[in-house]
Specification:
The chain is α/β, with parallel strands linked by helices. The protein is built from 18 helices and 15 strands. A hairpin with a 2-residue loop joins strand 11 and strand 12. It starts with a helix and ends with a helix.
Length: 445
Amino acid sequence: MNRRTFLKNAGISVASAMVMNPLETLAQNAVKNNKKLRLAMVGTGHRGSGMWGKAVLKDYADIVEFVGLCDINPGRLEYSAKKEIGVGPECKLYTDFDKMMKETKPDMLIVTTVDATHDEFIIKGMEMGANILTEKPMTTDEVKCRAILDAEKRTGKKIIVTFNYRYSPHRQKIYELLRDGRIGEVTSVDFHWYLNNRHGADYFRRWHRLREKGGTLLVHKSSHHFDLLNWWINAEPETVFALGSLDFYGKNGTIRSTTCRVCEHKSDCNYFFDITKNERLFNLYCKNEQYDGYHRDGCVFKEDINIYDKMAATIRYTNGVQVSYSLTAYSPYEGYRIAFNGTKGRLETWIKEDAMADDVDKGFDVLNLYPNFGEMETFRIAQAEGHGGGDVRLKDKIFRYPDAEDKYKQSATSMDGALAILTGVAARKSIETGQIIKIQDLLKG
């Protein structure tokens, strides 16, 4: 089943959903007409002020300008604007989103708020005349997802979902080898992701610990992984069956507090996080708690945690590929293992981002290709900063070279965003019901 048939069966408008490169429609006119692209942003926390604020102005100030910034926390908004992003007086600050959109009339709205609110700002932003650049996940459930797709069709505006993992060189190399047929037809994939006890634990300190905010890690984090699978396999996820539980964090702890700063177990807890030693996070969050009550250094053993820290899913694709996927959030190291099994061989890699590597592989991501008959072939791809080198390449495509050839189909549309999050939503529903969930049923609503 190809994408056109898949979408038609799900009741999705093929004409609006088959656009494969929305980036050209967003920025190229500004570049060609020698005008700066007018940007507005809603959500000025860590990701917004850093990756999509300060870094964008640093590298693209000659072709973009921020005309408005919005956040529900006025203290964080002021600090982010002046100290983090570094905008000038021409950029107006707002706590009222509608007012910002009406007064600034941006070409592009960047959405970096809490995941569960993405749909509100994406839909309103398109209705008020802006194209959208949104952080993953695009949204957190199937109802909001369908509303976003309907709004895109209705308004004629376009959405970019920032799947930066697609742009990292070693993941691109995987795509190339698979498309070149080096292991024949892919038949199955083993994909296992490990979050260490620093990065993994951090999700349980923040708002991500609440299902109603982030949709569980199967949506917030795994949507990255599911999008990679969809892109690599070059097909649509069809059915999902999953298991998951909260086995380590939250109620499983024997000691707990509200925040690390006030905890009486600081000397006894391996998960104690002294946010006062991180100047940036302390200034962004702790100094502005009085406005919204949000604590960035929450206890990882708080009893209100209602997401999973151990998850596994079996996914079947429309082309018959079968995937075994897992995510563990309390591993001693960070990284992932993935293996593609094909009719002519196997392609695999094991990325340990914070573990010791052999001298010969230090500084490289290594892919091993095993033909069914013949010698193993090794590919060493130089490592790079920023999500494996993907950040700068993604932003170059969006802002600097919007009409450049998209040879590896790395530009992600709203439908790519939808299929990524709906795989996670299906897994979540499968855990809750014990049933196999069909992706098309979620698209149909």
